[in-house]
């Protein structure tokens, strides 16, 4: 079951004047993995908490499966929002949290939840307050995955987990998504680790949506060029350079913007190597101070 | 029908009430066991003169006054309801309306339980007196009136506490304090009404008192429900 999310001119004010979200509009088709990226304070959590009906927007409209989600009994149990150290009752035991979740999420898979609990070595009888940060994160992602909610949102939910647990989570997420297609939104600062999962990327900056694009298309807007320093410098004239590194006579630069067939031919002739750019480099460039909105949207 | 199917068919309101009851029923039982033992223990010591207190010694109706601690206990449970459970339910796909109604059902269950447990105290008291061989004139009140009054008071105290908790959860400390004062005003009003000697008053008086108690509880519930509907899920309370 896949559900479409439509957001139109969404705004959220904090303290009556500070804008957490400003005129955000987008549409997310169901059955994809989305990456929501943004710097600290860019409005990611505010946006996601509105989608999950954790709070109401100040202006604009949200439609999930065609209906406003806030206090909508049909929609709220279709959207599972997981945050690190999120909303687990500290006095509850792990088994109580799982029991409540199993009772509330209509598509809950109890066997899958048990398997994940075993994998993450979560003790059922332990109270939440006695769990380590990593264990709390693991419990959160267990609920998110086992809920099988048509819209599942992970907001930095796996930050507290150690690297092996995080990679296990990424593998499990992809595997379960393939078996049970649904909309998954991942909001993270660990872009390098999860960028391969993204099918589409949204970037928020200062409460505004600065980009929504397919991940592969976004990656194609940047290139890494490696070769003799002089040749690289000549080639880079007129291009937006994101970063550069020099080692002896060899230079490596990262550029933003499509190169075009002619430039690519010239690079080969000059003995330069062209490679892909990481999503993280592009993200850093797009959210750096002073980058105009026109460049963000059109490259 | 399998257990899972039964779970799935339970309404969100029933889910909230069920999980709250599961979480707090043991606390309720332990409270009453400890409270009863301490209460009768202290009273027995007073009756035997170990603790000198003539007023209680001469009253002959100790158990009547045994509702103050349970009321405070329910007030505290009420304060903790929104603070401790709202996040868990709403983040698991329960609407605020269902949380409010489920909480109300839970409040009703707690109040009925406390009322029944309090009524059970009368025969226990009688038994203790018989066993101890003490001579006391027991003048029991109209138990039906006592039961209804206590039920409304327990319910009012729990919902009053719930309103206080919701106020501090939703608002900043100053507005939270104002909501707290409002709840306390309701509870003082209810206490003032019950200060009338029920056994000695007329049926009309009793009816008016019970009506006012019910009305006060209804108003507390109504205000609390209004606050709950617009509440944002918070990670922790900001004071």
Automatic annotation (TrEMBL), chain A:
<dbReference type="InterPro" id="IPR027417">
    <property type="entry name" value="P-loop_NTPase"/>
</dbReference>
<feature type="domain" description="ABC transporter">
    <location>
        <begin position="5"/>
        <end position="231"/>
    </location>
</feature>
<dbReference type="GO" id="GO:0016887">
    <property type="term" value="F:ATP hydrolysis activity"/>
</dbReference>
<keyword id="KW-0067">ATP-binding</keyword>
<dbReference type="InterPro" id="IPR003439">
    <property type="entry name" value="ABC_transporter-like_ATP-bd"/>
</dbReference>
<protein>
    <submittedName>
        <fullName>ABC transporter</fullName>
    </submittedName>
</protein>
<dbReference type="GO" id="GO:0005524">
    <property type="term" value="F:ATP binding"/>
</dbReference>
<keyword id="KW-0813">Transport</keyword>
<dbReference type="InterPro" id="IPR051782">
    <property type="entry name" value="ABC_Transporter_VariousFunc"/>
</dbReference>
<dbReference type="Pfam" id="PF00005">
    <property type="entry name" value="ABC_tran"/>
</dbReference>
<dbReference type="InterPro" id="IPR003593">
    <property type="entry name" value="AAA+_ATPase"/>
</dbReference>
<keyword id="KW-0547">Nucleotide-binding</keyword>
Automatic annotation (TrEMBL), chain B:
<feature type="transmembrane region" description="Helical">
    <location>
        <begin position="144"/>
        <end position="164"/>
    </location>
</feature>
<feature type="transmembrane region" description="Helical">
    <location>
        <begin position="208"/>
        <end position="228"/>
    </location>
</feature>
<keyword id="KW-0812">Transmembrane</keyword>
<feature type="transmembrane region" description="Helical">
    <location>
        <begin position="72"/>
        <end position="90"/>
    </location>
</feature>
<feature type="transmembrane region" description="Helical">
    <location>
        <begin position="102"/>
        <end position="124"/>
    </location>
</feature>
<keyword id="KW-0472">Membrane</keyword>
<feature type="transmembrane region" description="Helical">
    <location>
        <begin position="21"/>
        <end position="42"/>
    </location>
</feature>
<protein>
    <submittedName>
        <fullName>Uncharacterized protein</fullName>
    </submittedName>
</protein>
<feature type="transmembrane region" description="Helical">
    <location>
        <begin position="176"/>
        <end position="196"/>
    </location>
</feature>
<keyword id="KW-1133">Transmembrane helix</keyword>
């Amino acid at each position: 079951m896949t559900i479409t999310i439509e957001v139109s001119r969404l705004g959220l004010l904090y303290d009556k004047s500070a804008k957490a979200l400003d005129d955000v509009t987008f549409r997310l088709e169901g059955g994809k993995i989305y990456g929501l990226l943004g710097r600290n304070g860019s409005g990611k959590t505010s946006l996601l908490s509105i989608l999950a009906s954790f709070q109401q927007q100040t202006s604009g409209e949200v439609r999930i499966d065609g209906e406003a989600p806030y206090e909508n009994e049909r929609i709220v149990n279709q959207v599972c929002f997981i945050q690190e150290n999120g909303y687990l009752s500290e006095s509850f035991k792990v088994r109580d949290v799982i029991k409540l979740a199993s009772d509330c999420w209509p598509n809950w898979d109890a066997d899958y939840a048990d398997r994940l609990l075993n994998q993450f070595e979560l003790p059922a009888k332990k109270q939440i307050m006695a769990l380590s940060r990593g264990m709390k994160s693991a419990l959160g992602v267990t609920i998110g995955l086992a809920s099988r909610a048509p819209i599942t949102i992970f907001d930095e939910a796996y930050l507290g987990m150690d690297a092996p647990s995080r990679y296990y989570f990424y593998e499990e997420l992809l595997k379960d998504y393939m078996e049970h297609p649904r909309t998954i939104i991942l909001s993270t600062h660990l872009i390098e680790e999860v960028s391969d999962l993204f099918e589409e990327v949204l970037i928020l900056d200062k409460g505004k949506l600065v980009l929504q694009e397919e991940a592969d298309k976004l990656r194609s807007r940047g290139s890494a060029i490696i070769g003799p320093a002089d040749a690289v410098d000549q080639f880079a004239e007129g291009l937006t350079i994101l970063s550069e590194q020099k080692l002896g006579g060899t230079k490596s630069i990262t550029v933003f913007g499509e190169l075009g067939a002619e430039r690519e031919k010239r690079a080969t002739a000059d003995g330069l190597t062209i490679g892909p750019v990481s999503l993280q480099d592009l993200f850093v460039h797009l959210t750096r101070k002073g980058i105009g909105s026109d460049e963000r949207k059109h490259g | 029908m399998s257990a899972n199917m039964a779970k799935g068919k339970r309404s969100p309101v029933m889910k909230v009430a069920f999980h709250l009851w599961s979480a707090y029923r043991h606390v309720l039982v332990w409270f009453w066991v400890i409270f009863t033992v301490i209460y009768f223990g202290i009273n027995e010591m007073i009756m035997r003169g170990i603790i000198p207190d003539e007023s209680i010694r001469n009253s002959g109706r100790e158990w009547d006054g045994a509702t103050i601690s349970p009321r405070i206990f329910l007030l505290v449970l009420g304060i903790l309801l929104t603070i401790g459970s709202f996040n868990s339910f709403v983040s698991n796909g329960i609407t605020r309306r269902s949380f409010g109604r489920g909480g109300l059902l839970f409040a009703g269950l707690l109040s009925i339980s406390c009322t029944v447990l309090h009524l059970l105290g009368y025969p226990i008291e009688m038994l203790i007196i018989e066993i101890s061989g003490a001579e006391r004139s027991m003048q029991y009140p109209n138990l039906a009136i006592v039961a209804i009054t206590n039920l409304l008071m327990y319910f009012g105290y729990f919902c009053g506490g719930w309103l206080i908790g919701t106020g501090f959860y939703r608002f900043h400390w100053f507005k939270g304090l104002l909501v707290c004062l409002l709840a306390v005003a309701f509870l003082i009003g209810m206490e003032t009404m019950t200060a009338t000697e029920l056994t000695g008053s007329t049926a009309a008086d009793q009816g008016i008192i019970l009506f006012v108690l019910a009305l006060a509880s209804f108003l507390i519930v109504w205000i609390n429900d209004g606050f709950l509907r617009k509440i944002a899920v918070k990670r922790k309370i900001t004071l």
